[in-house]
Write a structure and sequence with these properties.
single chain; about 280 residues; mainly beta; 2 domains; nine-stranded antiparallel sheet; globular
């Protein structure tokens, strides 16, 4: 029998400089416990410091937005230029525009929302009702490089291109979970045989969301279990959703099994703070 193992995706190295933080998510390998963050990357969630002039728009984002990526480009934005990037306009004022952006090689259901303010702010986001795991773009995943971009980053780059500005130095924030300080992506991949790992979340951590993304390449299928209970099945495509606290409860090792044919990938995404 294969040893239980865990793989952590290499996430967004082009946007965020990460550090190896003392995070105690444990995995089990060969019957022994180890720290999941060893060799992995954990990324911060940082609240945007909106200026007073953006206060009305801030209220709008707090009501609508969930997982987001943002930055201030350090100069005024010509909103007429920003409009050229949008697929649809949802709201427009003299100060800001909100609309949707289409993403390359993805269906309309994966379109991101984008807020652009004349004072230099760009915020790309998904809605509160959508799981954080929706941000994962499997077009940017490989076994060697890991996950190098999310859908939010791709949307941000699209708006930056329309404006002719750099979007380096962007940060992530979740408007739905303002007290979540970090997020973590755990990726398991398989090409032939079933694969699995054991995961334990310490009870002293506050977990705001547990979600998943499951991918199977064309002419393939994939499904995964947690503790022998099937969570999801996908045939040649992507599905994502949330897990309950009971499905991934703290202070217990949970066995996560991935099955299918051909290439398929699973990501478990956690938004949390260290208590």
């Amino acid at each position: 029998m294969k040893d239980k193992k865990m793989k952590l995706g290499v996430l967004l190295v082009t946007i965020l400089a990460s550090s190896f933080l003392g995070v105690y998510f444990y995995v089990q390998s060969g019957g022994k416990s180890s720290i999941a963050a060893e060799g992995g990357q954990i990324f911060p969630l940082v609240s945007p410091a909106f200026a007073q002039s953006v206060s009305t728009a801030t209220t709008f984002l707090e009501e609508e937005a969930g997982m987001s990526i943002y930055l201030n480009i350090g100069e005024s934005i010509d909103l007429s230029k920003a409009k050229t990037a949008y697929k649809t306009i949802e709201k427009e004022t003299s100060d800001y525009i909100v609309g949707s952006l289409s993403l390359p090689d993805l269906p309309e259901t994966e379109d991101v929302h984008c807020f652009v303010h004349k004072d230099g702010w760009i915020v790309v986001y998904y809605l509160k009702a959508e799981p954080i795991s929706k941000t994962i773009d499997w077009n940017y995943y490989s076994l060697t490089a890991g996950l190098t971009k999310t859908k939010l980053q791709v949307g941000l780059e699209k708006m930056g291109l329309a404006l002719g500005v750099s979007v380096t130095g962007a940060k992530y924030y979740n408007f739905q979970y303002p007290y979540a300080y970090k997020w973590m992506i755990i990726i398991e991949s398989r090409d032939a045989s079933p694969d699995s790992f054991n995961l334990k979340i310490p009870s002293e951590f506050t977990i705001y969301e547990r979600s998943w993304s499951l991918y199977a390449e064309s002419v393939a299928y994939s499904y995964f279990y947690i503790d022998t209970n099937q969570i999801a099945y996908v045939n040649s495509g992507v599905k994502y959703g949330q897990l309950t606290a009971a499905q991934l409860s703290p202070d217990a090792f949970h066995t996560i099994d991935l099955y299918g044919i051909n290439k398929n990938y699973l990501a478990i995404v956690l938004a949390y703070k260290e208590s």
